[in-house]
Amino acid sequence: MMNPQENYLDKENIEELNVTPTDNNVQESVSEEIKEEENISEEDTNSETPYNEDVVVERKTYKNKKEVIERIKEIAHGDADPQKDEVDYLKTTFYKMHFAEREADMKAFLESGGDVANYKVLPDEDEEVFKAEMSVIKEKRAKLFFEQEKEKQENLKKKFDIIEKIKAMVTSPEEANKSYQEFKKLQQEWKEIKLIPADKANELWRNYQLYVEQYYDLLKLNNEAREYDFKKNLEIKTRLCESAEKLAEETDVISAFHQLQKLHQEFRETGPVAKELRENLWSRFKAASTIINKRHQQHFEELRAKEEDNLVKKTALCEKVEEIAKEDIQNAGDWEKKTKEIIAIQTEWKTIGFAPQKMNVKIFERFRAACDEFFNRKAEFFKALKQKFADNAEKKKALIEQAQALQDSTDWKATSDKLVALQKEWKTIGMVPKKLGDKLWNDFLAACNHFFEARNEANAGARSEERTNLDKKREIIAQLKELTESAEEGIQEKVRELIDLYNSIGHVPFKEKDKLYKEYHNILDKLYKDLNISTARRRLDKFKNNLKSYADKGADALDNERGRLMRRYEQIKQEVQTYENNLGFLNVSSKKGNSLIDEMNRKVQKLKDEMELVKQKIKAIDAENDED
After folding, report:
1. DSSP letters along 537-575, please?
2. pLDDT tens, 554-606?
3. Residue 180 contacts by C-beta under 8 Å, 6 or more apart in sequence?
4. What is the pLDDT of residue 585?
5. Using CA atoms, how far apart are residues 71 and 60, in angstroms rounded to an integer?
């Protein structure tokens, strides 16, 4: 059924309504309608400032990167405007999947027995496609922003034009009723214009209210039409109040809030009701709105608090990974230990929810960068380690070649020394991979064993001789022990003879060598002490006994020792000459001078005794060389 008011206003001649210019009730009703409209700010419904920062829309769950890319392509090449929150969500989702795939790929590589040093992060075609589409969206959003700014300026001008037109109507009171249809048309145009610059919204709305109110002050409506409008508006606004109150039962806080915005828009666009009902009706609607708004605000406060807490946790994990990535890790075991720590941190990261929207992508990129730094350093370490292993393997192969070249030699002494030197050098070379290391060691050991087994077979007779020499030396030790209990004359001469005989006997078995040496020198020390044999003689006897050990080291060892003794002999000889020259200048007339001369004479004699000992040692070496 058509509104009677609308029916009347369709007539060309408004004056036929017979509305008197002094209808105070109409003027009061219009004024009250303006007052009620003032209770709802344009900011509540202005589509220029939509709730787009904190609104959490229902998001689709993507199974893989292909689905994300398909959606990002739809946004990039579709007609719809890109929504920032959805684009950010798609970016976060894509890189979570991308990072997870890379982790899984590396884990599978390692579990299949791959060497971590050989693992390489391959370029991801999906990522390149994703980045390209994101660039298209970025350009599209920039263009959209430019167009929106342009549209806002155009809409601002349109609304200024509407205000000017209403302002012109206000200046012609006699034409107010006739221009009502045009006025309603201008109001509708005003409602249809949405986006305007935010900094102009309040000022623009106040000017609009001012002239609309002035216009209504001039307008006189038919009482019957006004009452009908009041009744119809009451029904609408009562229904809106009931709908707003029912929203308190809505479990989806976000949905309830958006439904409330639509109810506010409809409430605002609905005309006034009877004066006595207005305040209560508005209070009822406002009370229901307050409940929804508080729930909405609390929801996002909790969400923001949770996201801030998540940001703190994720920041702490970033710091942990960054700290590990900077550590000076020197061996493979520590790298594997730290790798397990990183993987544990990555697992913990996945259990933490989103950070605040503005930081979510940044904190993830920081975490990914720290992990990448660690794994890149690890790859470099194992690459260098692999190269070191290869170098060590080459060194050991060279030693194997040398050992194999010597394995058939029959120069037992010289070759033994060379192989022992090779074995010592082998120990100084670092590690190689275990499988290759076992083979290299077996080859090296085989060459050494081949030689030593052949030497042992050739020296089987020598070992029998060593046992005979052992028996002979034990017999001499037994005779020396008997001399310690004898009181007959000429013992010193017998001792020297036994010592010379002992020194003339060849090698004894190696295992018996130290024990025999200790037993022999213990009995000699006792004899020297009992017979008052000089220290010099003891030292000479001991030196002669040790000549065998020098001989075992090779001719070079004896020559080196002889050279050392010759240098010592010349040094002592020079010192003796110096002292003797100095003695010629001393004055013996004083007591002090006589004492000094005596002291120097003692030093000269001591040096001469040492010269004699060195001379005897040189003779002993020469005798040993002559025997060889």
Report:
1. HHHHHHHHHHHHHHHHT-HHHHHHHHHHHHHHHHHHHHH
2. 557 777 777 888 888 888 888 877 877 777 666 555 445 566 676 677 777 77
3. 9, 14, 219
4. 66
5. 10
Q: Give the position of tokens 């194997």.
A: 400
The model's pLDDT over 499-555, given as tens digits with 9 standing for 90+, comes to 778 877 877 777 787 888 888 778 777 776 665 555 555 566 666 666 666 656 655
The model's confidence at residue 303, banded by pLDDT at 50, 70 and 90, is confident
Neighbouring residues of 319: CB distance < 8 A, sequence distance ≥ 6: none
Full DSSP string of 182-249: HHHHHHHHHHH-----HHHHHHHHHHHHHHHHHHHHH----HHHHHHHHHHHHHHHHHHHHHHHHGGG
5 in Cβ contact with 224 (< 8 Å): no
Q: How many CA atoms lie within 13 A of 423 on its CB side?
A: 14
Q: Is the pTM of this model over 0.85?
A: no
What's the pLDDT tens digit per position in 220-250? 544 455 677 778 888 998 999 999 889 888 8
* Residue 83 φ/ψ, nearest 5 degrees: -95, 125
CB 508 within 8 A of CB 466: yes
- Phi and psi, residue 189, nearest 5°: -60, -40
- Token pair, residue 595, equals 């004492």
Give, rounded to a whole angstrom, the gap between the first and last alpha carbons of the chain: 141
Residue with tokens 């400032």: 49
